[in-house]
Amino acid sequence: MASLKPRNSSGKIIVDKLTKELFLSNVRVSRESTGESHSFDFNKNRCKTLSKNEHIKEHSKGILYWMYRECRIQDNWAIIFAQRLARKQKIPLFVCFTIKDAQEQYPTKRHFKFLLEGLKLIQKECKELNIGFYLLNSSGKDLAKLIVQNEIGGVVCDFSPLRHPRKLQDSLLKELPDYIPVVQVDAHNIVPVWIASDKQEGMARLIRPKITKNLAEFMTGFPIITKHQYSGEMEVENEISKFEDSYDLYTPKWDVPEVKWGDGPGMEAGHSMLHHFIVKNLRHYGETSNDPSKDNTSKLSPWLNFGQISAQRCALEVKSMDSVYKEQCDKYLEELIVRKELTDNYCFYNEFYDNIKGAANWAQETLKIHKKDKRTWVYTREQLAQAKTHDEMWNAAQLQALNEGKIHNYMRMYWCKKILEWTESPEQAIEYGLWLNDTYCLDGTDPNGYVGVMWSICGVHDQGWREREIFGKIRFMVDYSLRRKYNMDAYCARFGRKLLGDAKKTPALTPKDPKKESANDRKKKAVKRKAT
Ligand SMILES: Cc1cc2nc3c(=O)[nH]c(=O)nc-3n(C[C@H](O)[C@H](O)[C@H](O)COP(=O)(O)OP(=O)(O)OC[C@H]3O[C@@H](n4cnc5c(N)ncnc54)[C@H](O)[C@@H]3O)c2cc1C
Question: What number of CA atoms fall less than 13 Å from residue 197's CA on the CB side?
């Protein structure tokens, strides 16, 4: 693959000389050198035919890409496949996005605006590429009508393991005549979810070898989407001609203030953050990225989850740095590929991905045994949302979500585990955890979020630990250990106290360190059930 990255005489990339301009042109050149959608050797294992028929009817008037999860043009296997079909048939290419029931995926205006601003950029890009873009307020049934009326030869859709998009796809398939082929492309995972495994995998160590063995086949460069040669227009009902009108058609589930994330929505802003991460923070990844006060992870999850950048692009760019930062690259790729793709695997194969029935039997049992354990603190959902707990570190994490739109990964685990400790039951903890995560975090309503909450509260992808109150055998996290490891005062000063403005009035409660507890105290506290 062509590379413009500055190198020293032994071929090593000179990180400090990798400017943003060079980085971005390198991405473009790598696409150009990989080929065009029609000449590239497309791996059909990325695709799944959802319809009975696979063949495009002769004299069709276009190919339609129904965009849902992957809101981008370049680096998107679904539209690459759609353009390839359209070029082979010598017909126009159309993209449509429907905002009907958008609150299911984008529950607040914070989310919806990030989506819409990204789509606006896509519309512009489509215009330059001679691809018709339509923003619609249509149901599956309306879409089916549009496809038939416009004599569309084939439909390409992307993949999401979540309930709502799957329901939408089912309704389209139900309404569409059998002769129109519908092909789904997993453009989110590097190794398509159905190739990585045909069942729910219990842990990262079980899916890792299955993903790794397929990486050589799937982690290729992307061909470029070039200007489409065949023009056309569709006749559509329910089109939203002005983006601003979308807000009148959208009913947010919850009202939260908007936030600004990085340089804002869209691929360019996402790639700008990717460049920043590679040149500034990759060198620390794994070493200090768990430290909430340092905050030097990639911060790419909102763009990834809105489909505005591709995880495969991030993986390719980070991997290209492994001659400089081998260990850090490996650690990052473990998170981005193995951990992330494991969450799609979980949601795809487990219909109960957002409730206690989705937990393993051992976890359901242990939580049931401890359901009635006495809770020292019980908070309402509103108290939690407003960061009004006794724990300043927890409050700081919640305020980070509220004011920034995301929580640092390490704090997210602590934050969610405390929800189990401070609510009336594990069921309520899942409900509150998911609600808080999806309402305030820009990267929410994503498989990573469902699994993050289920891992914290129900031990999903984890093992049993020493048994204790409330948690049973679910892994526990303590405040003093967090303080011992990291500079939590700095974290609280940054996200909590400063924003709360009440630090002086409400001094932090100093958590008790068990090392200072007497053996007698500990004995009294210990749960009498035997841990395995
Ligand atoms: C309770 C809880 C809730 C969470 N909710 C979400 C959520 O709504 N959306 C979300 O994307 N992630 C969620 N996570 C996982 C993780 O916190 C975020 O992916 C991470 O903080 C994103 O920040 P980053 O992009 O800087 O991550 P980086 O550390 O730079 O990681 C790179 C990428 O790897 C992936 N990744 C990292 N950690 C995980 C993980 N534990 N599981 C799966 N993928 C991972 C993400 O795509 C991330 O962007 C949650 C975790 C927990 C414990």
Answer: 24
